């Protein structure tokens, strides 16, 4: 292909910025292209990009021009930054009908992020709240198994002439999972922009209807992929879960920093300590297998709210494997723990979510039994 302005523009229609489902040409990011012999000057305008997102975009542009048009092209990319208030931009992307989006995240895998997500969701649905889960864990979507809807395939439907995906409902919770679209034994390697695009589509194209709370089960970690997800999805608040041992806490600090970055600034509703201790059957003695109260101390140290602790329960693991959330077990220690944590989460959310009308706050406070009204 010849190195011309037209060819370059056409090729750049295949490049997206991390976190956006639109390409850089249609979204207006690409401002100008100049070609002088084998030299190409490209001007871009970006709003609040992370350093990684910016670098990644530059590399993507260079790669695609070298691969598709002319491998010896000398490319010069000028990036102008236009400041946009991240809060305003995320509000403008609000999902119609969904009041609060709560991201559940962990810096490490296997610390109980999905367990917390499904149990909070089921606990709130049990009380009459309208709840959804978007399982965005691209590395290992376990929500379908834990909610007993493994292998289900969501239907495509038309709502007011537009194509939508119908979520799968289980235990009164509306579920959409990246796992519904990938095979169990299929290892999918996601790149940041691809994951953001797929998840943006899933979150905005799902027929959620009216929801009080939409839980987002994020992939574990704090890398580029997470940054672009957290930036692109309209998150109201986040919960960070960790186990109490030192190695996990060091990672948890990184997770906290990610949400606190200027260009993300998602409020942290609080920290949850999982696998806090173990009690043998018929014994009240607590064994602190991963250390005592590490997450509680971390929350004190960083002045972040502590939402609660979950002990190690064999029956909680069994319930998850069986596809029935432990929080639905009637008057059990497990259901009490998740009811308490969900109450604390909702309270934090209602205090911070200034957009909710007072009638909604009264309604939710009464359903959940938290004390947000009095604050
Ligand atoms: P993540 O989503 O962070 O990868 P999961 O929620 O999938 O972690 O939990 C990993 C495994 O640990 C699962 O088998 C789950 O059932 C189990 N598990 C999580 N929390 C507990 C707990 N408090 N007690 C017993 N098992 C737990």
How would you describe this protein?
The chain is built from twelve helices and 14 strands. It is of the alpha/beta class. It has two domains: 5-81, GMP Synthetase, Chain A, domain 3 (2-Layer Sandwich); 91-373, Rossmann fold (3-Layer(aba) Sandwich). Strands 4, 5, 8, 9, 10, 11, 12, 13 and 14 form a nine-stranded mixed β-sheet that branches. The protein has a three-stranded mixed β-sheet with strand order 1-2-3, with helices on one face. Strands 6-7 form a two-stranded antiparallel ribbon. The structure holds adenosine-5'-diphosphate. Adenosine-5'-diphosphate binds at residues 106, 109-115, 142, 220, 274-275, 310, 312-313, 316-317, 320.
Sum this structure up briefly.
By secondary structure, the protein is α/β, with parallel strands linked by helices. The protein contains 12 helices and 14 strands.
Topology:
Layout: H1 5-12, E1 30-36, E2 39-46, H2 51-68, E3 74-81, H3 86-92, E4 98-105, H4 113-126, E5 131-135, H5 143-146, E6 156-159, E7 162-165, E8 168-170, E9 173-177, H6 192-205, E10 211-217, H7 224-232, E11 237-242, H8 246-260, E12 268-279, E13 286-287, H9 294-301, E14 306-312, H10 314-322, H11 333-352, H12 358-368
Parallel strand pairs: 2-3, 4-10, 4-11, 5-9, 5-10, 11-12, 12-14
Antiparallel strand pairs: 1-2, 6-7, 8-9, 12-13
